[in-house]
Specification:
- Catalyzes the condensation of iminoaspartate with dihydroxyacetone phosphate to form quinolinate.
- InterPro entries: NadA, NadA_sf, Quinolinate_synth_A_type3.
- One of its GO terms (molecular function) is metal ion binding.
- With 401 residues, the chain is α/β, with parallel strands linked by helices.
- The chain has three domains: 148 residues, Rossmann fold, CATH 3.40.50; 124 residues, 3-Layer(aba) Sandwich (Rossmann fold); 89 residues, Rossmann fold (3-Layer(aba) Sandwich).
- Helix content is 38%, strand content 15%.
- The chain is built from 16 helices and 16 strands.
- The strands form four sheets. Strands 3-2-4-5-16 form a five-stranded mixed beta sheet, with helices on both faces. Strands 7-6-8-10-9 form a five-stranded parallel beta sheet, sandwiched between helices. A four-stranded parallel beta sheet has the order 12-11-13-14, sandwiched between helices.
- Strand 9, helix 10 and strand 10 form a beta-alpha-beta unit.
- Helix 1 packs parallel to helix 15, helix 3 runs parallel beside helix 4 and helix 7 crosses helix 16.
- The chain binds iron/sulfur cluster.
- The site of iron/sulfur cluster (SF4) has 14 residues, from helix 5.
Amino acid sequence: MRVVTTAQTPELDVQPTPLALLLLGREADPKSERGVECPGDLPSPSDPDLVERARAAKEKLGDKVFVLGHHYQRDEVIQFADVTGDSFKLARDAAARPEAEYIVFCGVHFMAESADILTSADQKVVLPDLAAGCSMADMATAEQVAECWDVLTEAGVAEQVVPVSYMNSSADIKAFTGKHGGTICTSSNAKRALDWAFEQGEPSTTKVLFLPDQHLGRNTAVRDMGMSLDDCVVYNPHKPNGGLTAEQLRAARMILWRGHCSVHGRFSLDSVNDVRARIPGVNVLVHPECKHEVVAAADYVGSTEYIIKALEAAPAGSKWAIGTELNLVRRLANRFAPEGKEIVFLDKTVCFCSTMNRIDLPHLVWALESLAEGNLVNRIEVDQETEAFAKLALERMLALP
Ligand code: SF4
């Protein structure tokens, strides 16, 4: 089996990003949603005492620390998580633990930002490796989105547009969304968010600017809301006017930002056809960040929480091919194997999220030991104005029916 990371993944529809240069976390990248400095004197990955060191530091911190583990994290990290979940669940879990002074977020940068926005001012959010960003979140910068809004204004449609931004976006993009009357969504509530957005104006003329994941936007609009592919246009921030004419913008109902997840974007129709041929009777279950043709060919589609629940409810002897990040799929395969459920990764090529994988045990040990010694490291802090508008957008999501 071939092993690749997303940083090695050839992507056809985006401009090159500086990601490859940042893999060692040694450069500064002001255009990225993440920081990249890693000032830590990290323990060696070969240190045989890492597990014991993490346990001891966590015990010393006691209730002062709360460790959050995203579903896509490595097993070596997840074992120290007080709670696991998707990014939004984790941010809410952190807010529900006000006695925890330190929130150690084992996930990526935008998730730590969301946790900082939703927790109290006394709580400090720590990301063990500042180079753990998200390539999808990086595909929509504040400058690009402001320019897009100018293009929409020029075309005379901005007043009809309601922005809806996926949770997987930087705090700046969430703030833009809040400022322009929009809401945030997750992969679980994207349909409810779009229903809400279209109710904000005259339904026949209202448009949604969906950021930054074109696939989640398109899949929700077409699969869940009965729109046609022709109702959607793709705004490419690397082309003048997004590569769209004013007529195209006026005719569209969904203006999709040209962003995608490097992990979920790998799955193809061939992956689905191939697994069906290899495993007769297999159920194909994919995340809505996958391409539209993959979602259309799948048997079931849903968020990570949906995937976990579907496998919990699956009968013994059932077979599943899962289209989401490999750390989670492997963990689920191991968990459900004793119940006689066969679970495989949808693609033949193994692909982890390279930035999620940056949080490893040495980084976690370094962060926990630093906190235990009274050194606050790698704090993620969103400025007050950004936080206020981002929170507005998040609160609109929380109020969705
Ligand atoms: S799996 Fe995709 S969306 Fe999630 S952090 Fe990695 S690149 Fe970003």
